[in-house]
Amino acid sequence: MTTTAKPPVEERKRPWPAVNEDNRFFWDGIAVGELRIQKCNECETLIHPPRPHCAGCGSFDPGYVVSSGIGTVYSYVVFHAPLAPPFVEPYSIAVVELAEGTRIVSQIIGIPPSEVRVGMPVALEFVEVEPGLTLPLFRPTES
Ligand code: ZN
């Protein structure tokens, strides 16, 4: 887990998340090693990405659950171009279906993008992708 202070904007290499009152719980979770998924306090619908109100019942009373970080690749793409530094092509971005029943978009790490498959079991790994920026990425649990 990172304790690195945020670098000045001009020194950042990647797009950084826009943290606001609707998603602050998510990024606060990342800072303490938790993948927090929004859960409606009224109807218990899981919601990701975070939003002000529940898509199930319209409630403005969000809570969250801490994900196990276990999931499977629901879908994915492999980026080859255009080049967008600091990303190193090719890389794979996947929709991961979490064990809790909701999905999250993330990067699959640890294997060549050509080996990513739908249905592949994956597990959460917090990665400091640049100083001060930690993201929830996923690594296959089987080879
Ligand atoms: Zn609801």
What layout of secondary structure does this protein have?
Blueprint: H1 24-31, E1 36-40, E2 46-47, E3 62-66, E4 70-79, E5 91-98, E6 103-108, E7 121-130, E8 133-140
The structure holds zinc ion.
- Rounded to the nearest angstrom, the distance between the terminal CA atoms is 26 Å
Molecules bound to protein: zinc ion
Computed Rg: 16 Å
Helix coverage percent of residues?
A: under 10%
Low-pLDDT parts are none
Protein described:
- This protein is mostly beta strands.
- It folds into two domains: 16-66, no CATH class; 68-143, OB fold (Dihydrolipoamide Acetyltransferase, E2P).
- Helix content is 6%, strand content 38%.
- The chain contains one helix and eight strands.
- The protein has one helix at 24-31, and strands at 36-40, 46-47, 62-66, 70-79, 91-98, 103-108, 121-130, 133-140.
- A five-stranded antiparallel beta sheet has the order 6-5-4-7-8, with no helix packed on it. Strands 2-1-3 form a three-stranded antiparallel beta sheet, covered by helices on one side.
- A hairpin with a 2-residue loop joins strand 7 and strand 8.
- Bound molecules: zinc ion.
